[in-house]
């Protein structure tokens, strides 16, 4: 769905209305005002806002997996334990010859992580790939955090998953308590 263009005054009026009814409206407004007051900060804010707009747009897009990605995803999930790229390479190399190379297996696994289908956790020098839920839970444990008081942005960075997926997992954890 494409946004309907509005004139400048209408956009500002709509933003003011949304902020006035939002629980955190005052905090959001104060933060934005402080940022917009300085050109340097304003430029960073505008760039970050565009990144955010692109990320939010991606949430609504359907995730499409290649046949190989789907095969690797099914393999990892069927093992019911975190796997590293070498283990995937060994287990899937007969089915897909390019996966005999650990670097290619790693590339496919990282693609699945960036699409939010898998998460990754660092164990000693290697990265292991697992479900998004397990990756978030492990991130929470390592950080000593609880789902209701955690750093989703940092967990997204540590697990390699999109922030929207991390927030969805955290929401599921909070709903199950």
Tell me what you see in this structure.
The protein is mainly alpha-helical. It folds into 2 domains: 9-59, no CATH class; 67-175, Orthogonal Bundle (Arc Repressor Mutant, subunit A), CATH 1.10.10. Helix content is 64%, strand content 6%. The protein contains 9 helices and 2 strands. Strands 1-2 form a two-stranded antiparallel ribbon. The longest helix is centred in the N-terminal third of the chain and has 21 residues, at 39-59.
Describe the biggest sheet?
2 strands, antiparallel
The number of distinct structural domains comes to 2
Count the helices. How many? 9
Physical arrangement of strands within the biggest beta sheet: 1-2
Write down the overall geometry: elongated
Order of helical and strand elements: HHHHHHEEHHH
CATH topology of the largest domain: Arc Repressor Mutant, subunit A
Strand content: 5-15%
Could you say what the CATH architecture of the largest domain is? Orthogonal Bundle
How many beta strands in the DSSP annotation? Answer: 2
Bin the helical content.
55-70%
Features of the shown structure:
177 residues; mainly alpha; Arc Repressor Mutant, subunit A; 9 helices; elongated
Fold topology:
Blueprint: H1 8-21, H2 25-36, H3 39-59, H4 67-79, H5 85-92, H6 102-114, E1 119-123, E2 126-130, H7 132-143, H8 152-159, H9 163-175
Antiparallel strand pairs: 1-2
């Amino acid at each position: 769905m494409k946004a309907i263009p509005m004139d400048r005054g209408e956009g500002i009026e709509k933003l003011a209305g949304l902020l006035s009814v939002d629980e955190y409206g005052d905090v959001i407004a104060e933060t934005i005002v402080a940022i917009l007051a300085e050109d340097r900060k304003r430029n960073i804010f505008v760039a970050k806002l565009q990144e955010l707009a692109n990320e939010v747009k991606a949430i609504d897009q359907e995730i499409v997996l290649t046949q190989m990605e789907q095969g690797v995803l099914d393999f990892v999930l069927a093992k019911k334990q975190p796997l590293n790229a070498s283990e995937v390479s060994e287990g899937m190399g007969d089915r897909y010859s390019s996966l005999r190379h650990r670097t290619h297996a790693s590339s496919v696994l990282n693609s699945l992580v960036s699409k939010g289908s898998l998460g990754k956790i660092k164990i000693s020098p290697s990265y292991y790939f697992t479900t998004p839920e397990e990756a978030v839970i492990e991130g929470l444990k390592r950080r000593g955090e609880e789902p209701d008081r955690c750093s989703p942005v940092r967990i997204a960075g540590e697990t390699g998953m999109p922030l929207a997926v991390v927030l969805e997992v955290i929401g599921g954890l909070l709903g199950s308590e």
